[in-house]
Structures are given as C-alpha cells and as structure tokens.
C-alpha cells in the first residue's frame, strides 16, 4: 500500500474519530443539561407545592377565624387535602419509577444492539479477510 494512501486512510480515520468524540461529548452535555433542567423543575414544583399548602392552610384558618367554617370541618378538609396529595405523590412516584425502568430497558436494548452489530461487523471483516486470502491463493495456484 503506497504511503500516500496510508496517510489518506489515517486522515479519514482521524476525522471519523473526531466526529465520534464530538457526538459523544454533545450527548454527554445534553444529558447533563436535561438532568440540571429536571432538578430545577423539581425545585420549582416543590416550592409551588409548599406555597399551595400554605395558602390552603391559611384560607382554612381564616375561614375558621371568621366563623365561616367550623374547626372540625376545616380539620377534615385539611386531612382530606393532604391525603389526596399523598396519594397523588405515590402515583407520580410509581409513574416515574416505571418511566425510568422503561428508559433503562431501552438503553440496555440499544447497548445490546450496538454490541451485536459490532460483533457482526467483526465477523464479516474476518470472513472477508479469510475469503480474500483464499481467493488470492486460488488465483496464484491458477497462474502456476
């Protein structure tokens, strides 16, 4: 193989490697960004939930103070409110756990597919190399 062809092949391989590195870095940064965004969203949701609880409790206390509602009714409402909130959070926790599980399963399937394709590529390369060698030796025998 001429030196210029080897240099060209190395240059092409280096370009491919650089593109793969860039893609990997880009995916990594995207994942970090998504995680940070999810964390910020979670903090916002928690803050809003705390504010909502505070407003709900204050409104019940105000209604009780003004005589618009009896204390036991306010307590029952508050108990029902927090019970519903707990149930909702449990459902959301199950949903998130299921979602994470599905995403993990998909990731594992992709990894398996990539590994399988790489193995297949290696096998095909080996078969071509052996076949090429056999064809070359067969042509040499025919020439003799």
UniProtKB/TrEMBL annotation:
Return the protein name.
Uncharacterized protein
The way this protein sits in the membrane is described as: Single-pass membrane protein
| Keyword match Cell membrane | yes
Show the InterPro entries listed in the entry.
Limbin, Limbin/EVC
Supply the source organism for this entry. Albula glossodonta
Q: Name one Pfam family in it.
A: EVC2_like
- Predominant location category: membrane
Coiled coil feature spans:
none
Q: Please, which domain of life does this record's source organism belong to? A: Eukaryota
Quote the subcellular location field of this record: Cell membrane; Cytoplasm, Cytoskeleton, Cilium basal body
Write out the GO biological process terms.
smoothened signaling pathway
One term under GO cellular component:
plasma membrane protein complex
Q: Which UniProt keywords apply?
A: Cell membrane, Cell projection, Cytoplasm, Cytoskeleton, Membrane, Transmembrane, Transmembrane helix
